[in-house]
Amino acid sequence: LSPSAPQLPTPQPRSSSAAPWTDDSWSSSSSPSLAMPRSIQYSEKYSDEIYEYRHVILPSEVAKVAPKSKLLSETEWRGLGVQQSRGWEHYAIHKPEPHILLFRRPLGTDPVTGKVTEVPNAQTVTAH
């Protein structure tokens, strides 16, 4: 009896039009249960009195091409493949984990228009 090594999925060639972060490069017809996840992950939303927040975890292929030392505009983060409703702002960089994008938007933001329609428990904040 000779021991045989388990068969791992082999990346399949992708078409030139495929984005580098799509899951199709890890598809395997012989072993679909072993396909490696390569998708953008989205947290649940959480909030304080002023904003709602969420974080987005980029897969390594996307993180490699994403700028790490600047906040991204909506056009830039959408260009990386991040998909979420309107009104979100990339507001902070967590340097130890630059592949995690931190987003916020004011409470009461209309997800279709991105405009703040109402501000629940509105408080005036004064900087000193």
Using brief descriptors, characterize the structure shown.
mainly beta, 128 residues, 9% helix, globular, 5-stranded antiparallel beta sheet
Fold blueprint:
Elements: E1 41-42, E2 46-47, E3 51-57, H1 60-65, H2 74-79, E4 89-93, E5 100-106
Antiparallel strand pairs: 1-3, 2-3, 3-5, 4-5
Strand coverage percent: 15-25%
- Discrete helix count: 2
Whole-angstrom Rg: 20 Å
- What is the averaged pLDDT score? 76
Low-confidence stretches: 8-36
The computed structural class is: mainly beta
The termini sit apart by 77 Å
What overall form do the CA principal axes indicate? Answer: globular
Series of H and E elements: EEEHHEE
Give a written overview of the molecule:
The longest helix has 6 residues, at 60-65. A hairpin with a 3-residue loop joins strand 2 and strand 3 (51-57). Strands 1, 2, 3, 4 and 5 form a five-stranded antiparallel β-sheet that branches. The chain is mainly beta and 128 residues long. It starts with 40 loop residues before the first strand and ends in a 22-residue tail after the last strand. It is built from two helices and five strands. The protein has helices spanning 60-65, 74-79; strands spanning 41-42, 46-47, 51-57, 89-93, 100-106. The relative contact order is 0.16. The model is unreliable at 8-36 (pLDDT under 50).
Summarize it.
With 128 residues, this protein is mostly beta strands. It has helices at residues 60-65, 74-79, and strands at residues 41-42, 46-47, 51-57, 89-93, 100-106.
